Amino acid sequence: MASPISGGLVAKLDQSTKSKLIGTAVALVGAMAVQKAVSFVWTAMSGHRPPPDDDTSAGLGEIAAAAVITGAAMALVRVLAVRGARRAID
Question: What sections of the protein cross the membrane (predicted)?
Answer without folding.
Answer: 21-43, 63-81
